[in-house]
Amino acid sequence: MLEYNRDQAVLYALYWALDRNPQYYNFTGIGGDCTNFISQSVYAGSGVMNFTPTFGWYYISVNDRAPAWTGVEYFYNFMTTNKGPGPFGEEVELDELQLGDVVQFNFYGDTFTHGGIITRLRPFFSGDRRILISAHSNDARNRSLSTYEYQKVRGIHIIGVGEPY
Is position 61 within any domain? Predict the structure, then answer.
């Protein structure tokens, strides 16, 4: 198992939070860019993609990528079940999250439809007031989780990175 470099993930997220890396397609306006941005940031901290067709986590081009690279639910399913190459994690309570971890929002209904990466933690707060995220679609850099009006929120703690085959 490789270590997830939280500092690199956060630095990447902060750098590109209000802009777009030209190496990746911008999905804003056609479904949203939030999970694409999260995946880029997590990749900056992990350095390993999973090229398993359909169920992996990778980006080669706009037309050659895994659903988990850009889809909120697919990202969650990959991260919480991955036993192969690439990052893996688990769903945890908000107070257990660390820098470089991921939060996903359910604004209505039963589906999680937006997310961000944790780029700052306030030490004297708890729950959603403690966490600041950076995100795309509705671009944000160090926005407090408590400023979102969500129905549900879940956290994905990145545990480590499976080595490439």
Answer: yes
- Which pLDDT value is given to residue 109? 84
Per the CB < 8 A criterion, the answer to whether 103 and 154 are in contact is: yes
Total count of domains within the chain: 1
For 41, the domain range is 6-159
Residue 1 lies in a domain: no
SS (H, E, C) the chain: CECCCHHHHHHHHHHHCCCCCCCCCCCCCCCCCHHHHHHHHHHHHHCCCECCCCCCECEEECCEECHHHHCHHHHHHHHHHCCCCEEEEEEECHHHCCCCCEEEEECCCCCCCEEEEEEEECCCCCHHHCEEEEECCCCEEEEEHHHCCCCEEEEEEEEEEECCC
Kind of pairing between the strands at 140-144 and 86-92: unpaired
Chain center to CA of 65: 16
Is residue 165 assigned to a domain?
A: no
10-residue stretch averages of pLDDT, the chain, 165 residues long: 97 98 95 96 98 96 97 98 98 97 94 97 92 96 97 97 93
